[in-house]
Design brief:
The protein is an alpha+beta fold and 355 residues long. The protein has a single domain, classed as tRNA-splicing ligase RtcB (Alpha-Beta Complex), CATH 3.90.1860. It contains nine helices and 17 strands. Helix 5 (160-168) packs antiparallel against helix 6 (179-209). The longest helix has 31 residues, at 179-209. It is globular, with a radius of gyration of 20 Å.
């Protein structure tokens, strides 16, 4: 189909189901451009997908976790002061972040019920250190400091976005002149705002729990489930990041590096969008049976990069194992081949927390 572009190369595997889902979206009325990024995989609607429409929006493409995204913070703690065993023990004492009490620091009441939590599935918080700098100038502009400990938070609007979708979802879409569109977009923008606020609260309360006075500095915060209005068009992103807001973060699995990249000026072909991560390779239901004999209860909590994982849900540990995800280097190579990014730096995980 002429309105579909797949950003991928011969080494990057994309399942046919995801392509079929993308083609179905491309056939929706009003859709003028559809993009599958290299992390494309199947979901309720395809993940790693961008859909551009005229005169109509489709809330179901974005889904219920509106504003889901990733925030990268400088913790204000020197990486040499990181105490792996001590922090693993401390974090193992809580089952989930809701066990750490927090207050809403904003004047408005929070629409997020579990404020300061990350949720389940592929959401996580991860302490990271700089692995390699590729562009010193951009790193300096970002204030990305090799000596400091970073914290990457992946979370969304924690049920608030789903309540919005439940109100406005219509498989036929909503015509741009329908009064419901402005109502939806207003609530949508509020979900995006609170998802970002939630990530910041997670950082502050986690650092305080570990015994530090929170002094985090936000370096990057990027959404990957949202609708952006661009002129008379609407860009629907599901598992995709805007390429027009500066450098972005593209993480792999808990056992691989995270890439900090800068978009180039060639992203119109990708609907001004970039990948949000490595993308799933296996369905969750398949993971445990495929790698059960490879790990025991201890080794599943370690990675080849010598980082550690704290998670009390063993099933989730298998569902989110590195093997369940595509190779992040292959995803990055695809973006480089299409000249959509320049690599700024790589970050290495040292401790991942899920729950």
């Amino acid at each position: 189909m002429s309105n579909i572009t797949i950003i991928s190369n011969e080494k990057n595997w994309i399942e046919q189901t995801a392509i079929n889902q993308l083609e179905a979206l491309a056939n929706l009325p009003g859709v003028v451009q559809t993009v599958g990024l290299p992390d494309l995989h199947a979901g309720k609607s395809p993940v790693g997908a961008v859909v551009v429409s005229e005169d109509v929006i489709y809330p179901h493409i974005v889904g219920g976790d509106i504003g889901c995204g990733m925030g990268l913070y400088d913790t204000g703690i020197e990486s040499r002061k990181f105490k792996l065993d001590r922090w693993v023990t401390k974090l193992s004492n809580i089952r989930e972040l809701a066990d750490i009490q927090t207050d809403n620091p904003y004047e408005e009441p929070s629409p997020i019920y579990d404020l300061g939590t990350i949720g389940g599935g592929n959401h996580f918080v991860e302490f990271q250190v700089v692995d390699k700098i590729y562009d010193k100038e951009v790193c300096m502009a970002l204030q990305l400091d090799e000596a400091m400990l970073m914290l990457l938070v992946h979370s969304g609007s924690r049920g608030y976005g789903q309540s919005i979708l439940n109100t406005y979802d219509n498989p036929q879409g909503l015509a741009a002149d329908d009064e419901q569109v402005e109502c939806y977009l207003t609530e949508h923008d509020n979900a995006v705002l609170w998802a970002a606020r939630n990530r910041k609260i997670v950082v502050n309360k986690l650092l305080a729990y570990l015994g530090y006075t929170p002094r985090p500095k936000k370096l990057i915060d990027c959404q990957h489930n949202f609708i952006e209005r661009r002129g008379d068009r609407f860009i629907h992103r599901k598992g995709a990041v805007s390429a027009e807001r500066g450098p972005i973060i593209i993480p792999g699995s808990r056992g691989s590096l995270t890439y900090v990249v800068e978009p180039t000026k060639n992203t119109a072909m990708a609907a001004f969008s970039l990948s949000h991560g490595a993308g799933r390779k296996w369905a969750r239901s398949l993971c445990k049976s495929r790698i059960r004999n490879k790990y025991d209860r201890d080794t599943i909590r370690q990675t080849k990069l010598k980082s550690r994982v704290v998670c009390h849900d063993t099933d989730l540990l298998f569902q989110e194992a590195p093997e369940a995800y595509k190779n992040i280097d292959t995803v990055i190579d695809s973006l480089l081949q299409f000249e959509l990014i320049n690599v700024v730096a790589t970050l290495r995980p040292v401790l991942t927390y899920k729950g």
